[in-house]
Every structure is written in structure tokens, then in C-alpha cells.
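Need residues for this backbone.
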């Protein structure tokens, strides 16, 4: 995802965001990370992707 954001490829970054969100949710549901930690990480990566427009 970082590569897509650095390259300015919004479509690829959006797809990477979906994949990352799913993986974070799965890790939280299995107890690997806390659900709030997953939410914080998803929020951070979503902000980077959404900030590409600005």
C-alpha cells in the first residue's frame, strides 16, 4: 500500500486498503491484536489513502 500511495496510484491504494482492512479485522477476530488496535491502524492507512486527493 505504501508503494501505491508513494506512486500516487489511487486505485491500487484503494485495493490495498481493502486487503489490509480485511487482514487487520481477521487478526483482531482471532485475538492476535486488540480490536481497538486494528481500528487505529485501519484509520491511519485510510487517512493516507484519502489524503492522496488533497
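Answer:
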Amino acid at each position: 500500500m505504501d508503494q501505491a500511495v508513494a506512486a500516487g496510484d489511487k486505485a491500487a491504494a484503494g485495493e490495498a486498503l481493502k486487503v489490509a482492512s480485511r487482514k487487520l479485522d481477521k487478526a483482531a477476530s482471532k485475538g492476535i491484536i486488540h480490536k481497538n488496535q486494528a481500528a487505529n491502524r485501519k484509520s491511519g492507512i485510510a487517512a493516507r489513502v484519502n489524503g492522496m486527493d488533497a
